[in-house]
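Q: Got a minute? One more chain.
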Amino acid sequence: MSNSDLPVILVVEDEPDVADTYDRWLQEYEVHRAETGEEALAQLDETVDVVLLDRMLPGMSGAEVLTEIRSRSIDCRVAMVTAVDPGFDIIEMGFDEYITKPPDREELRETVARLLHRATLNGDLQEYYSLVARRATLDATFPERQLEANKEYRVLVEQIEVHRAAVDDAMGDLASDADFIGAVREIMDTTNETEAPHDEEFTESTK
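A: Always. Here it is, folded:
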Protein backbone atom coordinates (compact mmCIF):
# COMPACT_ATOMS: atom_id res chain seq x y z
CA MET A 1 0.00 0.00 0.00
CA SER A 2 1.21 3.52 -0.81
CA ASN A 3 1.44 6.09 1.95
CA SER A 4 1.75 9.10 -0.35
CA ASP A 5 0.91 10.44 -3.79
CA LEU A 6 4.46 9.79 -5.00
CA PRO A 7 5.16 7.12 -7.63
CA VAL A 8 5.93 3.80 -5.94
CA ILE A 9 9.13 1.95 -6.88
CA LEU A 10 9.56 -1.62 -5.64
CA VAL A 11 13.24 -2.62 -5.42
CA VAL A 12 13.66 -6.41 -5.40
CA GLU A 13 17.29 -6.95 -4.43
CA ASP A 14 18.84 -9.41 -1.99
CA GLU A 15 22.04 -7.42 -1.38
CA PRO A 16 21.21 -4.76 1.26
CA ASP A 17 24.08 -2.45 0.26
CA VAL A 18 22.89 -2.41 -3.35
CA ALA A 19 19.28 -1.78 -2.29
CA ASP A 20 20.45 1.03 0.01
CA THR A 21 22.20 2.66 -2.94
CA TYR A 22 19.12 2.46 -5.16
CA ASP A 23 17.06 3.90 -2.31
CA ARG A 24 19.38 6.92 -2.02
CA TRP A 25 19.33 7.49 -5.77
CA LEU A 26 15.52 7.44 -5.90
CA GLN A 27 14.67 9.67 -2.95
CA GLU A 28 12.01 11.61 -4.85
CA TYR A 29 9.89 8.45 -5.04
CA GLU A 30 8.25 6.19 -2.48
CA VAL A 31 10.63 3.24 -2.47
CA HIS A 32 9.59 -0.17 -1.17
CA ARG A 33 12.07 -3.02 -0.79
CA ALA A 34 12.03 -6.80 -0.91
CA GLU A 35 14.92 -9.25 -0.60
CA THR A 36 13.18 -12.27 -2.12
CA GLY A 37 10.68 -12.94 -4.87
CA GLU A 38 8.13 -14.10 -2.34
CA GLU A 39 8.45 -10.84 -0.38
CA ALA A 40 8.10 -8.86 -3.59
CA LEU A 41 4.90 -10.61 -4.62
CA ALA A 42 3.45 -10.12 -1.13
CA GLN A 43 3.98 -6.36 -1.50
CA LEU A 44 2.83 -6.13 -5.09
CA ASP A 45 -0.49 -4.38 -5.65
CA GLU A 46 -2.04 -1.77 -7.92
CA THR A 47 -0.14 1.06 -6.18
CA VAL A 48 3.26 -0.13 -7.47
CA ASP A 49 4.34 1.79 -10.57
CA VAL A 50 7.81 0.40 -11.32
CA VAL A 51 9.61 -2.77 -10.20
CA LEU A 52 13.42 -2.95 -10.27
CA LEU A 53 13.94 -6.70 -10.31
CA ASP A 54 17.14 -8.69 -9.87
CA ARG A 55 17.25 -11.99 -11.79
CA MET A 56 19.36 -13.80 -9.18
CA LEU A 57 17.35 -14.07 -5.98
CA PRO A 58 17.30 -16.64 -3.19
CA GLY A 59 14.47 -19.10 -3.74
CA MET A 60 12.14 -17.77 -6.42
CA SER A 61 14.09 -16.35 -9.37
CA GLY A 62 13.56 -12.94 -10.87
CA ALA A 63 12.26 -14.55 -14.06
CA GLU A 64 9.66 -16.43 -12.03
CA VAL A 65 8.67 -13.24 -10.22
CA LEU A 66 8.25 -11.46 -13.56
CA THR A 67 6.07 -14.27 -14.89
CA GLU A 68 3.86 -14.04 -11.80
CA ILE A 69 3.60 -10.25 -12.09
CA ARG A 70 2.39 -10.54 -15.68
CA SER A 71 0.01 -13.40 -14.86
CA ARG A 72 -1.67 -11.19 -12.27
CA SER A 73 -2.17 -8.49 -14.93
CA ILE A 74 -0.81 -5.86 -12.57
CA ASP A 75 -0.23 -2.67 -14.51
CA CYS A 76 3.35 -1.87 -13.56
CA ARG A 77 6.54 -1.47 -15.56
CA VAL A 78 9.42 -3.85 -14.80
CA ALA A 79 13.14 -3.35 -15.31
CA MET A 80 15.47 -6.30 -14.87
CA VAL A 81 18.54 -4.99 -13.04
CA THR A 82 20.97 -7.86 -13.00
CA ALA A 83 24.53 -9.12 -13.31
CA VAL A 84 23.29 -11.92 -15.60
CA ASP A 85 24.29 -11.29 -19.21
CA PRO A 86 21.24 -11.51 -21.47
CA GLY A 87 20.73 -14.61 -23.58
CA PHE A 88 18.04 -15.59 -26.06
CA ASP A 89 15.90 -16.72 -23.13
CA ILE A 90 14.96 -13.08 -22.51
CA ILE A 91 12.75 -13.14 -25.60
CA GLU A 92 10.02 -14.79 -23.54
CA MET A 93 10.39 -12.40 -20.61
CA GLY A 94 7.89 -9.58 -20.33
CA PHE A 95 10.25 -6.92 -19.00
CA ASP A 96 10.26 -3.29 -20.12
CA GLU A 97 14.00 -2.59 -19.70
CA TYR A 98 17.11 -4.72 -19.13
CA ILE A 99 19.96 -3.14 -17.17
CA THR A 100 23.25 -4.93 -16.55
CA LYS A 101 24.75 -4.38 -13.10
CA PRO A 102 26.19 -2.28 -11.81
CA PRO A 103 24.07 0.63 -13.10
CA ASP A 104 25.25 4.13 -12.38
CA ARG A 105 23.05 6.72 -10.72
CA GLU A 106 21.93 8.46 -13.89
CA GLU A 107 21.19 5.22 -15.74
CA LEU A 108 18.95 4.00 -12.95
CA ARG A 109 17.18 7.32 -12.50
CA GLU A 110 16.62 7.77 -16.24
CA THR A 111 15.29 4.24 -16.52
CA VAL A 112 12.75 4.82 -13.75
CA ALA A 113 11.68 8.13 -15.32
CA ARG A 114 11.22 6.46 -18.71
CA LEU A 115 9.17 3.64 -17.27
CA LEU A 116 6.94 6.03 -15.34
CA HIS A 117 6.32 7.87 -18.59
CA ARG A 118 5.52 4.65 -20.43
CA ALA A 119 2.92 3.83 -17.80
CA THR A 120 0.85 6.69 -19.25
CA LEU A 121 0.73 5.10 -22.71
CA ASN A 122 -1.87 2.72 -24.09
CA GLY A 123 -1.44 -1.04 -23.96
CA ASP A 124 -0.42 -1.53 -27.59
CA LEU A 125 2.34 1.03 -27.30
CA GLN A 126 3.57 -0.40 -24.00
CA GLU A 127 3.79 -3.88 -25.53
CA TYR A 128 5.58 -2.46 -28.55
CA TYR A 129 8.15 -0.82 -26.28
CA SER A 130 8.65 -4.09 -24.39
CA LEU A 131 9.29 -6.09 -27.56
CA VAL A 132 11.69 -3.48 -28.90
CA ALA A 133 13.56 -3.42 -25.57
CA ARG A 134 14.10 -7.17 -25.83
CA ARG A 135 15.35 -6.89 -29.39
CA ALA A 136 17.65 -3.97 -28.57
CA THR A 137 19.13 -5.90 -25.64
CA LEU A 138 19.93 -8.85 -27.90
CA ASP A 139 21.22 -6.62 -30.69
CA ALA A 140 23.71 -5.12 -28.24
CA THR A 141 24.83 -8.57 -27.05
CA PHE A 142 25.14 -10.85 -30.07
CA PRO A 143 26.67 -10.46 -33.56
CA GLU A 144 24.26 -10.10 -36.45
CA ARG A 145 25.02 -13.53 -37.87
CA GLN A 146 24.13 -15.22 -34.59
CA LEU A 147 20.93 -13.20 -34.30
CA GLU A 148 19.78 -14.08 -37.80
CA ALA A 149 20.44 -17.78 -37.14
CA ASN A 150 18.19 -17.84 -34.06
CA LYS A 151 14.57 -18.80 -34.76
CA GLU A 152 13.19 -17.16 -31.61
CA TYR A 153 14.89 -13.88 -32.53
CA ARG A 154 13.37 -13.96 -36.01
CA VAL A 155 9.94 -14.53 -34.46
CA LEU A 156 10.54 -11.55 -32.15
CA VAL A 157 11.31 -9.33 -35.13
CA GLU A 158 8.08 -10.49 -36.78
CA GLN A 159 6.12 -9.69 -33.61
CA ILE A 160 7.57 -6.20 -33.59
CA GLU A 161 6.41 -5.66 -37.16
CA VAL A 162 2.89 -6.87 -36.28
CA HIS A 163 2.72 -4.46 -33.35
CA ARG A 164 4.05 -1.67 -35.54
CA ALA A 165 1.10 -2.25 -37.86
CA ALA A 166 -1.34 -2.18 -34.92
CA VAL A 167 0.14 1.05 -33.59
CA ASP A 168 0.04 2.51 -37.08
CA ASP A 169 -3.67 1.70 -37.30
CA ALA A 170 -4.24 3.35 -33.93
CA MET A 171 -2.60 6.49 -35.26
CA GLY A 172 -5.33 6.72 -37.86
CA ASP A 173 -7.97 6.60 -35.13
CA LEU A 174 -6.17 9.32 -33.19
CA ALA A 175 -5.41 11.65 -36.05
CA SER A 176 -6.33 14.69 -33.94
CA ASP A 177 -3.84 13.77 -31.23
CA ALA A 178 -0.64 15.37 -32.54
CA ASP A 179 1.40 14.48 -29.46
CA PHE A 180 0.52 10.79 -29.75
CA ILE A 181 1.34 10.69 -33.44
CA GLY A 182 4.66 12.42 -32.89
CA ALA A 183 5.56 9.99 -30.13
CA VAL A 184 4.75 6.90 -32.17
CA ARG A 185 6.65 8.16 -35.20
CA GLU A 186 9.67 8.75 -32.97
CA ILE A 187 9.54 5.13 -31.80
CA MET A 188 9.16 3.81 -35.33
CA ASP A 189 12.03 5.90 -36.66
CA THR A 190 14.28 4.61 -33.93
CA THR A 191 13.39 0.96 -34.39
CA ASN A 192 14.11 1.25 -38.08
CA GLU A 193 17.70 1.74 -36.90
CA THR A 194 17.37 -1.48 -34.78
CA GLU A 195 17.94 0.39 -31.54
CA ALA A 196 15.83 0.75 -28.43
CA PRO A 197 13.45 3.75 -28.42
CA HIS A 198 15.09 6.96 -27.23
CA ASP A 199 12.71 8.03 -24.50
CA GLU A 200 14.46 11.35 -23.98
CA GLU A 201 13.40 12.27 -27.52
CA PHE A 202 10.03 10.61 -26.92
CA THR A 203 9.45 12.88 -23.93
CA GLU A 204 10.36 15.94 -25.98
CA SER A 205 7.85 14.94 -28.66
CA THR A 206 5.03 14.73 -26.15
CA LYS A 207 5.61 18.03 -24.35
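A: Confidence is low (pLDDT under 50) at residues 174-207.
Q: Perfect, thanks.
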